[in-house]
Every structure is written in C-alpha cells, then in structure tokens.
Amino acid sequence: MKTYLTKDIRNVGIVGHGGTGKTQLVSSLLFTAGMTPRWGKVAEGTTTTDFDEEEIVRKISTQTALAHAEWPCTLCSGANVKINFLDLPGYGTFINETKASLIAADCALIAVDAHVGAQVTTEKDWDFCLEYDIPRAFVLTWMDRELSSFERSMESLQQSFGRSVVALQLPIGTERGFRGVVDLVAMKAHFYTPDGDGKPKIEEIPAALAEDAKEAHERLVEMVAEGDDELMEEFFREGTIPIEDLIPGVRKAIVAEKIVPVLMISAAHNIGNGSLLTFLADVFPHPDEHEEEGYTEPNGKGNRVERKYDDAQPLSIFVFKTMADPFAGRINYFKVKSGVLKNDVTVTNFVRGTQERMQHIQIVQGKTLTEIGELHAGDLGAIAKLKETLTGDTLGDKNAPVFYRPAQIPEPAITFAVEPKTRSDEDKIGVAIHKILEEDTALRFSRDPQTKEFLLAGSGQQHIEVVVAKLHKRYHVDLTLKPRKVPYRTSKANTKNNLADTASSASAASSSNPRSATKASNSWTTFSAAPFPTTGFRPSNVAFAKPPCAASSPVFP
User: Fold this and answer.
1) How far is it between the farthest Cα atoms of the chain?
2) 381-393 per-position pLDDT tens digit
3) Which of 199, 255, 325, 548 has the most crowded Cβ, counting Cβ within 10 A?
4) pTM of the entire structure?
5) What's the CATH class of domain 293-396?
C-alpha cells in the first residue's frame, strides 16, 4: 500500500452503544472499498476487526482494532484518500478501552440503533468527543429492521444533543423496504441493491419524496448558514445557497462542530455504504486541521509545546494502544503526531529516557500487519518488539522533546479473588498477568497482604471474565474466580476496654439482682470500628463480637 500525505488521511473512531452494529459497519465498508475479498459478518465470526477468540465467541468487541480503506474524494479531484478506522467497544464494561483509544482519532462516527435512538453509551461517547474536541456525526444503523424509524431516531437525538443535530440524508423506503438514501446536499437519490457491492446508483429524487426532501434541504441550509456570515448574507440575498457553495459550507460547519449530521445505513445488506464512505472522504477533517498540544513534562504538566501535524516538524509519535501477542510479542499502536517516521530510525522514549529502534514499521488491517517504508504526520501504524515502550508513551527526535497527555482512565469498579488451579498455573501467573496488564490500562492486579489472595480488579464482571479467558487461551494459565475475602479487624485497645466494661456491668448486675447477671453476661458486645475504606469495595474493618449464647449457633461459625 502506498503512503499518504497528511491532507489525504482521515482517522475515524467508530463508537456507539453495544449492539448498534459498529463492527459489521466497518466490515461492510471495507468490503465495498475493495479492501477485503470476502464480506465478513459478525454472526459468522469472519469480520476483520473482531479477530480475538473471545470476541468471536461472545459476538461483541472487547478491545480496540484498526483497519483502513482507500476511497476517492470528490473534493480532491477524485484522488484516493486513506480512511483509518478505529473499531471501539460499545458495552459499558469496556468503555474505558474506548476512551483510551479514541484519543488517536480526529473525528468520530457514532452508531445509533434506528429502532432505539440515543442510549447510555451514546451520551458517554458524545462526552468523550467533547473532551477530545473532535467533530462527530451520527449514523443510524439497522435501518432495514422492523420498527426502525428515522423520525423517531431524529427526535431522540435532538432531545439528547440539541438542535445542531441535522439530517444529511433521508431514507428511501422503511424497515425491510429500505433501499437507499436521499442526499440532501446534492439533492440526488442513491439506490442500492440489497446484498450487493454497496455502491450506489445515483438518480433523481422520487416524486413521493420530493416535498420532504425539499423541506429537509432547507433546514440543512439554514443550519449551515447560521454558522457562517458570508453564507448567511448569500442566504438572505438569494433565499438559498447554491450547491457549489453549500458543499464546502457543510464541511466547514461540521469541522467547526457547528452542526452534527445524521446519516443512515444497513450494513447487514450493504445499503448506504458508498454514500457513507464518500461522506467520510469528503467531509471529515484531516489531521492538520487542528494543532496538537504537547507539554514539557509528562502527564500534561509543565509548559505547553505547540506541534502541528506537519512533515516539516520534528518527529514525534504517541503510543495509544499496546497488544500482547503470544507469538509476535508486544505490539504498539501509535499515531505520528509530527514529522515523517521512516523505517529503521532510532528515536527517544521521552517518558522512560531510553532509545528505541523503529524497525519494521507496519500498517494494520485487523490482525494483519503489513510493513511500510514511511508514515507521514497524522497517520496510524504499529510496531512490534520495542524494548520498554508502553501505552501513553511519547517518542521522537531527541533534540525536540515533547510529552503528549495520555487518556485519563477511571479506577476499577470491581475486584475478584483469583486462585490458580494448579501449582504450574501459580508459577506462570506472574508473567501472563504482566503481559495482559500491558494491553489493558483499566486492569489492576495485586496480592492482599492479609488474606494472601491474588486480586484482579476491572471495570465489571464481564471484563474480568474476558481477562481470565484470555489467560487460559493465550498463556495456558487456568484461574478460578471467587469473591474476595474480607479481613475483619478491630483495635486491641478497644477490645480490652469493651470486655472490661462488659465484665464490670455483669458484676454490678449480679450484686444487685442475681437474675439480671445472666442477662448482662449474654448481652452483645460491639467493638468500635474505624471509618469505612474509600476504595469503593465492601467495608473490611468492621467487626462484631459473638454473644456467649451463640456459641453453638449455626449463624456464628
């Protein structure tokens, strides 16, 4: 594959709620673009970006996957551009993985189920886009399914995200009769053959849709004109905006985040693929349309260092993802922030103060890595077997140090105890867990000094289960998940004081009333407890004394 200049690169993060068809969407777009000889399907486990065994079995994405496509840009004299896809998880358990990798995207395509509308993760993904300040667009998926509704979905999105959400297309047909889209910019109809190659046949808008298309076109023109003074003057003067001015006006409004367009697709039947690829190539920004802020110290500290996505700038790259492959070893996914990365160059890891040789740089298509001679500013790539580089590290020219801020990932929400099944598993657990921790920044592993248990903490139970399954399949380490033990404790001084108080009470009661002595001696003694821990887990330092009468009770073991 040839190398692409910065202006010919689009880095698109594919995000959305779980089950909205993101992986199937990427697979269908790759097939339409001719990047894969076979149309991969999630149901068959043959998609390009869900290649891990657990993803195939569970039919969900659990980790970041990269892919790329070449597609002509109609605004670039028909020349091909390179579209890098970041297929990101959608289920809440793996949302930290989405946040960690979306930092490498320059724009986001948010998938929304046309039957459901905006969901919880849709709003989280929107917040991530705001945090990283990247343009975004919605794509309505599953338009061919029963009860899917363009009108209901638009209403849901506008209620959740405001009036800047505006339709860029209208559907041709509904539910199983969905056959294409109306382009509201060029005012043309794009017809598709179900289960075809995903490329449209462009015709005039059907008479039945002409009035609706005209109204939707006028709403789009008004929204575009609102954010541009020159277009606003032309709109008031002419009553509309001609197409030769509207196309760049729409792009300008989307890149400036003035409007958030809505498109639609049926990835399961290859309807809308070509129109969506053209939108990504023509409208979404290339990396050099914004500057990247670096710092003089790690973790966003120190003075700011302005870097542009420019080949003339000093070389700097940022590692946003690490994969642990049992055969190839550690694989680092990176983004070239500035300069040109050439094969076999030596760079400095500014975070760790070490030298790394960038030998055999590669581009990624799912699990397939292809070697390439050089990568220009803004492009994504991968490299295997770097000595010390991990996720969040910045590398580059030793004479121009810079640090890019890594993604801020929340602490784990749940902890399980893990127990090796055999002595052999116990011997191998350390090395295996270390490799998994390198690729999963949301995971924590420790050993409780009191209970001597191995503890595995993550974003949710499913997250931990997936990690345990990876340990078994990749490194042949078998673990058993159990609830963690809670070490009940109390201070020695408080125990003595409480026992002394109880004894004196019993003695006083027996001297005044013999029958009350038995009652006092059988009373419960509650030890004072320290404040609850703030780790988010069950309290581990509250203890209750056992009453004497409960010596043989099954409730108190």
Assistant:
1) 105
2) 999 999 999 999 9
3) 255
4) 0.87
5) mainly beta
